[in-house]
Design brief:
The protein has 208 residues and is an alpha/beta fold. The chain contains seven helices and six strands, in the order E-E-H-H-E-H-E-H-E-H-H-E-H. It has one domain: Nucleotidyltransferase, domain 5. The protein starts with a strand and ends with a helix.
């Protein structure tokens, strides 16, 4: 079963964030991917890199380059959804976040055309009630022919989620005009790079 690791960079509520980027990374062989990431993490620990610095937001420039280079050499396929918020302050609710995740999952399903999909998403919501609401909204919005399993994971417990976090951060820095170097590292691994605006994606999600 294909597994997709999903994480985002940027926020919905903060109007200063012009964009929010949500990335999915496709992994066919979990054990192989885990071994690859373990080697990257071991190398980082040799430099006494703290665990929290594995997040794109915290990581130093050298750490970003090393981790992203590992993603590239491992030939992971990256799917990026870039959402222009139109300067809106958007509530960070399970439904709104599910709208983004569902659009990304549907794009990934179009690419791979699989019948079964494992979805491991960074623990965006920590309360189980919010996770359950997110799961329900996601179920309503994704392709009905897709059979999937979903898990909300802490990136410190499942290091493969860091692949999606680092990818999303690199893409966000491109669109925010902050730095292109990290996007340039991974651009050949990006198989889908879809740009939408919030009013458009919200309207598409409404029942007809």
């Amino acid at each position: 079963m294909l597994t997709i690791f999903i994480d985002e960079s940027g926020t919905l509520p903060d109007p200063k964030d012009k964009f929010i980027v949500i990335c999915g990374v496709g992994v066919n062989r979990i054990k192989k991917a885990d071994n690859i990431i373990s080697r990257i993490l071991f190398s980082l620990r040799q430099r006494k890199i703290r665990i929290k610095e594995l997040k794109f937001y915290y990581a130093g420039q050298r750490t970003k380059r090393q981790f992203l280079s590992g993603i590239v050499s491992s030939e992971f396929e990256i799917f990026a959804l870039i959402v222009d918020k139109k300067r809106r302050k958007i509530p960070d609710t399970p439904e709104n976040f599910a709208i983004l995740a569902a659009d990304l999952v549907n794009e990934i399903n179009l690419w791979y055309k699989v019948k079964k999909l494992g979805v491991i998403i960074d623990k965006h919501f920590h309360r189980k009630i919010d996770q359950d609401k997110f799961n329900q909204f996601l179920k309503e919005k994704i392709n009905k022919n897709l059979e999937y399993q979903i898990k909300h994971a802490d990136s410190q417990q499942n290091s493969l989620v860091n692949i999606a976090d680092m990818s999303a951060g690199a893409v966000l820095w491109k669109y925010s005009g902050k730095d292109l170097q990290f996007y340039n590292l991974i651009k050949d691994n990006i198989v889908v790079e879809k740009i939408v605006n919030w009013p458009e994606i919200k309207r598409k999600s409404l029942p007809r």
